[in-house]
């Protein structure tokens, strides 16, 4: 009897040992990541603000001769190109170049700012520009330094209200030095790139504030048509709008005047409807539009100026 019990116990141990060896011989389960998908590099989609950049003006006397053409000032164009390149690099804006600054300002003053087709208008000017050359002459060596200083002023105007929301001036400086010994070494003439560097240095000090001010207010767009052909919004793919996106339609708040400051402003809007993007069309950021459907709520299709759209 004891022998049978012992044999049974040995059998159980052998079976258990085999099962254990089989279990540990198998690879443990693993989670395999999908190839080609880098989750760390996926950036959240952002809607882009439309920013119109008016032509810079050159308020200095530098480079102005008898045949000076204000509309084609090379230094002002230089500053405009630098600013637009830096704003474009941020990836937050659709930039619209508007060269007729006087006309833009007249539209803002008349309350027709929406005709500009942008959320903000940036106006700039070069307020200071100068260069100097200094040098040192020694017995066996000489040194020549060229320095350029530039001042740039920026104004940002909220197109919907016509108010200046940001105004600042900054200065930049660039210099280069050449040395020669016993007549050997650099004898460079005026370095034309210094003006680029000085203007760029001044704009660099303003760009972060420009970006922050222009993105501080919630993104919005407008209903440009609502009839039997459908509800059409301004803006499309270039602004980050996608098919299936849902937005809220707001009715504008009334305008009130602060008796202490004399400033007239608009109260917060009231949400009245939900809309969904069905399709997008248009060839350029200026002509893109989105066709949407009404998900819920109602609005007056005969008074579209009383509404705006936000995420």
UniProtKB/TrEMBL annotation:
<keyword id="KW-0732">Signal</keyword>
<feature type="signal peptide">
    <location>
        <begin position="1"/>
        <end position="25"/>
    </location>
</feature>
<keyword id="KW-1003">Cell membrane</keyword>
<keyword id="KW-0449">Lipoprotein</keyword>
<keyword id="KW-0472">Membrane</keyword>
<protein>
    <submittedName>
        <fullName>Curli production assembly/transport component CsgG</fullName>
    </submittedName>
</protein>
<keyword id="KW-0564">Palmitate</keyword>
<dbReference type="GO" id="GO:0030288">
    <property type="term" value="C:outer membrane-bounded periplasmic space"/>
</dbReference>
<dbReference type="InterPro" id="IPR005534">
    <property type="entry name" value="Curli_assmbl/transp-comp_CsgG"/>
</dbReference>
<dbReference type="Pfam" id="PF03783">
    <property type="entry name" value="CsgG"/>
</dbReference>
């Amino acid at each position: 009897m004891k022998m049978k019990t012992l044999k049974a116990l040995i059998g159980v141990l052998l079976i258990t040992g085999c099962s254990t060896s089989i279990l540990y011989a198998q690879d443990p389960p693993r989670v395999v990541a999908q190839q080609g998908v880098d989750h760390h590099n996926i950036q959240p989609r952002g809607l882009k603000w439309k920013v119109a950049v008016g032509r810079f003006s050159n308020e200095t006397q530098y480079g102005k001769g008898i045949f000076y053409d204000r509309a084609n000032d090379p230094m002002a164009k230089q500053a405009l190109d630098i600013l637009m390149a830096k704003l474009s690099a941020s990836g937050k804006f659709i930039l619209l170049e508007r060269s007729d600054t006087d006309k833009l300002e007249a539209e803002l003053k008349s309350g027709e700012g929406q005709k500009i087709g942008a959320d903000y208008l940036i106006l700039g000017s070069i307020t200071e520009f100068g260069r100097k050359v200094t040098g040192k002459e020694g017995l066996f060596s000489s040194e020549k330094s060229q320095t350029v200083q530039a001042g740039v002023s920026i104004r940002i105007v909220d197109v919907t209200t016509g108010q200046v929301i940001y105004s600042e001036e900054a200065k930049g400086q660039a210099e280069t030095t050449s040395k020669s010994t016993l007549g050997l070494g650099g004898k460079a003439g005026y370095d034309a790139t210094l003006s680029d560097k000085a203007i760029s240095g001044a704009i660099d000090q303003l760009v972060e504030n420009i970006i922050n001010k222009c993105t501080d207010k919630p993104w919005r767009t407008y209903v440009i048509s609502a009839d039997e052909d459908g509800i059409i919004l301004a803006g499309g793919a270039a602004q980050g709008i996608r098919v299936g996106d849902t937005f809220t339609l707001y009715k504008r708040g009334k305008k009130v005047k602060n008796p202490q400051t004399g400033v007239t402003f608009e109260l917060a809007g009231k949400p009245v409807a939900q809309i969904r993007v069905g399709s997008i069309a248009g060839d350029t950021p200026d002509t893109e539009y989105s066709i949407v459907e009404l998900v819920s709520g109602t609005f007056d299709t005969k008074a579209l100026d009383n509404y705006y759209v936000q995420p």
